[in-house]
Amino acid sequence: MDSTVWTWIWVIGTFSLYFGIAIWARAASTKEFYVAGGGVSPLANGMATAADWMSAASFISMAGLISFMGYDGSVFIMGWTGGYVLLALLLAPYLRKFGKFTVPDFIGDRYYSKTARLIAVLCALIISFTYVAGQMQGVGLVFSRFLGVGIEWGVVIGMVVVLFYATLGGMKGITYTQVAQYCVLIFAFMVPAFFISFQMTGNFVPQLGMGSQGADGVYVLKKLDNLLVDLGFTEYTKGSKTMMDNIAITAALMLGTAGLPHVIVRFFTVPKVSDARKTGLYALIFIAILYTAAPAISVFARTNLIETTQNKSYEEMPGWFKNWEQTGLLAWSDKNGDGLIQTSPGSAIQGNKPVFEENLGIHGERVFSNVETANNNELYVNGDIMVLANPEIANLPAWVIGLVAAGALAAALSTAAGLLIVISSSISHDLMKKVLKPNLSEKGELRAARIASVVAVCIAGYFGINPPGFVASVVAIAFGYAASTFFPAIFMGIFSKRMNREGVVAGMIAGLLFTMIYVLKFKLSGIAGFTWVEGVFGSNSKEDWWFGISPEGIGFVGMIINFIVALTVNRFFPAPPLEVQEIVENIRIPSGAGEAVAH
Questions:
Q1: How far is CA 539 from its chain centroid?
Q2: Number of structural domains in the chain
Q3: 8 Å CB contact between 314 and 332
Q4: Which band of pLDDT confidence, cut at 50, 70 and 90, is reported for residue 491?
Q5: pLDDT at position 275 over 70
Q6: pLDDT of 384 strictly over 60
Q7: Is residue 373 part of a domain?
Q8: End-to-end CA distance of the chain
Q9: How many CB atoms lie within 10 A of CB 28?
Q10: What is the pLDDT of residues 179-238, one digit of tens each?
Q11: pLDDT tens sequence across 504-524
């Protein structure tokens, strides 16, 4: 059987499992819909949290980014794993002790303000929509390559699947579906890693294989360094980003993790505070399996790509090259007319992605019209294909190729489902029940949550079809929004009895506006539907980055602005009421946590 047949087998099998779990665990109350009834075991919740956390950005895009960024890509590993430690140890147990459904719930009650709640709802929606766009994009990538479905239709299929089990089962259904999805995605990520590590180094363990010698007696990392230097690139083990940008991106990812509403809500699903801490420990172990293997996969994939394509004719290219070429995520332009594929520094195209012509080139390759002639690079590779194409490049068995596709879908859909719950609960619970319609019945609230999920997934699908960048890059921006809005509000809400509603509202608005304007200016200009941005905000050149910080790292600056504004405004207004200060004192006592309550 070929890889397409195996992919269908894996996808149909895993999707059937997800649907079955959703039907079995369908939600019958708002508590089951929002926090799975609050009775999930720490071990199951740890696996669900890991699946919720390891999105398409982790599975598909992170290793691809590291493949092309080398040392600079380490910011994603350090930021995302470090942030999870920060969240699990510093914030999650206290939020669980507070005993609410959502982050806007915490902010609204802690800061005794409907305005604060509304700002928090707005921030939750912006973060979640930005994040879920990356997941839908990842779903489209998998369907377009492995199942012969266009990216647009792939996104639509993903929307229907995730909508089914998210709206039917709510957090209860999602939790147990995510347990299954973690098993699928980690198996799919590690099996090809074992194969390729043994193939290249004779060592089955990829984390060790990356530092081992290959069959030619040369260390794998040294070999990749030599290959890149020969082609004119910077050594893989040396970075090109400024220290300021590396620090900013790492901090934005770390602090953004601690403010992500779809991850925080997972800690509300366990019975006790001690269980929230155990969830953090289990989840960190499950996450570490993938995150420690990603750098190795990055090295193996980049090495194999160079050795397979460099100075080879198009006619010599194996089937995987031409298959991926048809997706528009890989392309070749014979700039010097010698008939050989040659990779060198610089973009092979003008703009964000190839614009293909109708006719084929003289070698039979697809031709793109927006060729960048200022350099000699002839090969365009979208970083998001590296993990997905890696088994094909390494000529692994067809069943492994299909398994990777199923794992990528599991990673994308698990996170998308968690984000849909955040979006629907923010609208139905925090906006409608708590602000607009206080007398809304539980049945009406549940119906509103499901309707909100339908609207949310349609919006997410649009951005999945018209993405503003690579999956991991888009997701990194969502972390920046979380860092610049929620992290200061949550941190000060737990550890400062003096912080009042006026301060936190001013801080969140300042952090959000600063970060959004920067992202609009440097990230969305030139993207379909956003061409107006450059006219409003001016040039979007890298040379114009403020403080030399990229859009992925600007959330760190937004967080600092949030803290400064909040602490300044706080001094001009009265301290919170005594009962609020007593709540703050109480949630810092790690004992006697009650159940999460809706009212």
A1: 27
A2: 1
A3: yes
A4: very high
A5: yes
A6: yes
A7: no
A8: 55
A9: 11
A10: 888 999 999 999 999 999 999 998 999 999 888 888 788 899 999 999 999 888 888 888
A11: 999 999 999 999 888 877 766
What number is the average pLDDT over the span 372-395?
A: 85
Give the three-class secondary structure for 595: coil
Nearby residues of 579 by Cβ (< 8 Å), 6 or more positions away: none
Q: How many CB atoms lie within 10 A of CB 375?
A: 13
In single-letter form, the type of residue at position 408 comes to: A
Q: Tokens for 496?
A: 């400062």
Q: What is the pLDDT of residue 94?
A: 83
What CATH number should be reported for the domain holding residue 64?
Answer: 1.20.1730.10
Q: Is residue 345 included in any domain, yes or no?
A: no
- Residue 259 has a pLDDT of 80
Residue 215 near residue 307 (C-beta atoms within 8 A): no
Question: b/e map of 331-347 (b: 16 or more CB within 10 Å)?
Answer: bbbbeeeeebbbbeeee
Q: Mark out the alpha helices in 36-150 (DSSP H runs).
A: 42-53, 56, 63-69, 74-86, 92-98, 103-110, 114-146
Q: Which two tokens stand for residue 215?
A: 């069959």
The CA-based angle 324-326-329, given to 5 degrees, is 55
Query: What pLDDT does residue 532 have?
Result: 43
Contacts 24+ apart (CB under 8 A), 11-14: 11/147, 11/402, 11/405, 11/406, 11/409, 13/406, 14/180, 14/181, 14/184, 14/406, 14/409, 14/410
- DSSP-assigned letter for residue 37: G
Q: Mapped to the 3 state alphabet, what secondary structure does 299-358 carry?
A: HHHHHHHHHHHCCEEHHHCCHHHHHHHCCCCEEECCCCCCCEECCCCCCCECCCCCCEEE
Write the DSSP symbol of residue 525: T
Domain containing 555 equals 3-212+246-304+395-587
What's the Cα-to-Cα distance from 505 to each of 54, 123, 477, rounded to whole Å? 31, 11, 21
| pLDDT bucket at 503, cuts 50 / 70 / 90 | very high
Residues with Cβ within 8 Å of 145's Cβ and at least 6 positions away in sequence, in order, are 323, 324, 327, 329, 385, 388, 405
Q: Are 151 and 326 in contact (CB under 8 A)?
A: no
Asked whether residue 352 is assigned to any structural domain, the reply reads no
Q: Which candidate, 578, 559, 408, 540, places its Cα nearest to that of 479? A: 559
Of 148, 118, 155, 151, the residue nearest 133 (C-alpha): 155
What is the C-alpha separation between 341 and 503, in angstroms, rounded? 58
